[in-house]
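Exercise: predict the fold of this chain.
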Amino acid sequence: MLTAALTPAIGQAPSQAGAEPEIHIPLHTLRGEQRIWADRLLAVFKNRQIDGVEWSMKFSAAGLVGNRFMLGIQRENWRQLDLATLSRDLAIPQALWMRVQQDMEHARAMFFAYEPDGAAGTYRVYLEFMPTPEALRQHGVLPLGCGYKWHPATQREAAVTAYRMRHLPDRAAFDAHLDPYLARLANPVLRQVAQSIVAQACAAADPAGFMFLEVDEADTRRDSFTVTFRGADLPLRAFIPDLLRLAASLALAESDVLGFLLPDEPRSLYSLAAGAARDGHEFLTVYYD
């Protein structure tokens, strides 16, 4: 069994005779100032139930960013959190917190994320509205939710990202909508790796059941898509050669990629994002749990 631990070290916990050993994976292996800020976010969840954990690794010419993690909480479990002190605990800019509170009235789930992309890193809150399948089929595309990003060390807002979910009823529609996004990727290896991951996901499950997201971010150059491979079982270890090839094409050290993965990687790749980031660099992000 695989579990995420809010505390350090990778290891195997004792199990009952004949039972599969539990493999505990730390949410991060950061040090220094970044560890302080990552642990500050985790402190909000101490002794509280969480409904999901994900990790991600972002590849771009600007560098490799690992140790990205996100915790999810369904609406029915929000009462565990002290919302009266949350903005202070996470150093959320006041104007941004007011918007988050307003959008929380309509959200079904809330996600908290940390990314070590600077001295102190950045925090994110995602609110997911999740349209019903019937409404999505009727309208074709509907808002999924918003992501709110800020720098906790300075309490400066970084970005607000709106996500749209698109209904693609079959493989032909899925391919037709995805192909232009892939064609815009100038780095041939990045494009090939994205195509390979998507192709293997489509071989494992019907893409009509995938979640296809588009991004809208005011005043930035971001142009990207995200596909969540619902129903597909994609062992992350199977994609390590592709990820190492991608790293080499971006002049990133293979050892850095391997440093974020377990020697016998048990996790599953379940989502892919690619395109142009807000800084203009092409990127590919893999999400796994």
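Check your answer against the key: The mean pLDDT is 89.
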